[in-house]
Structures are given as C-alpha cells and as structure tokens.
Amino acid sequence: MHKNAERVQAALRAAGSDAAVVELPASARTSAEAAAAIGVEVGQIAKSLVFVVDGEPVVAVLSGSDRLDPEKLRLALGGSEVARADADAVRVATGFPIGGVSPVAHPVRVVVDRGLATYEAVWAAAGTPHAVFPTTFAELVAVSGGDVADVRSA
Q1: pTM (global) more than 0.90
Q2: Whole-angstrom distance between the N-terminal and C-terminal Cα of the chain?
Q3: Is residue 153 predicted with pLDDT exceeding 90?
Q4: Angle at 117 between CA 115 and CA 120, to 5 degrees
Q5: How confident is the model at residue 122 (pLDDT cuts 50, 70, 90)?
Q6: Which residues of 80-97 are buried (b: 16+ CB within 10 A; e: fewer)?
C-alpha cells in the first residue's frame, strides 16, 4: 500500500473507524473517475477541496455532484478572504496531492458539507488518486474532526 494510503489507514484506526482503505487500479482523481471505479453515484464521492481562508488552509468536503460556494465557506468560518489553494499549497498543507486529498490524516481544519448526509454511504480519497475509503456522513465528521456547514452552491 502507498505510504499516503497507509497514513490514512492509520488515522482511521486511531479515530476508531473500521473503514478499510482500498487501492483502485483505475484513477479516482476526479469525482466522476472515483464513482466509475467504485461503481457508485458521483454524489456518493466525498471530494476534498483545499481553500485558504484568511491565510489558513481549510479542507472542504462535499458531495462529488456539488460545487463549493466560496462565499458560504467564508461565512461559515467567519473569514474575510477565501481563495482556492494551488497544487503546491495543497501538498504543503495536507501532505497529499490534488486528486488524493483525504479528509483525515493531516492537521488542516475540515468543514463537511451537510449535503453529504443524504447518502447512506460515501467514499473519500485516501491519500493518492488511486486510494479511497468507505464511510458514512456521521463517521466522516467524527474521524475528520470536521465542522458541519452548508457550503455548497445553491
């Protein structure tokens, strides 16, 4: 298993989760690729996007079928400036590449969009563009230490 996937698996175990990281032969870099590789709806993919709010990185986790509303993220965090992090900033903040950013196993604040609660099961990235893990909304919030908010576009 890739060292990033091992890091995610260890973080899941440490948080009390029984979720098992799965390494896929096909790419799961995008929500559509992940859904096709796993055999689920795009909405069941818990995509992790990294933004910078007032100079601090934040991981926003939302359904693969939704778009993030930066203004809602700003308001949810009480910030004044929001910008999308570039690839270098993502890797520095989380230790993961774009397309593999996990909602766990990093020190970055996490915000989980409440829209993910509509799915019984969701799949999140596990440190590489080929690694994922299954979870539920409640478990995702718990293992990520995330704050629940409405940050998706209307």
Answers
A1: yes
A2: 38
A3: yes
A4: 130
A5: very high
A6: eebeebeeeebbebbbbb
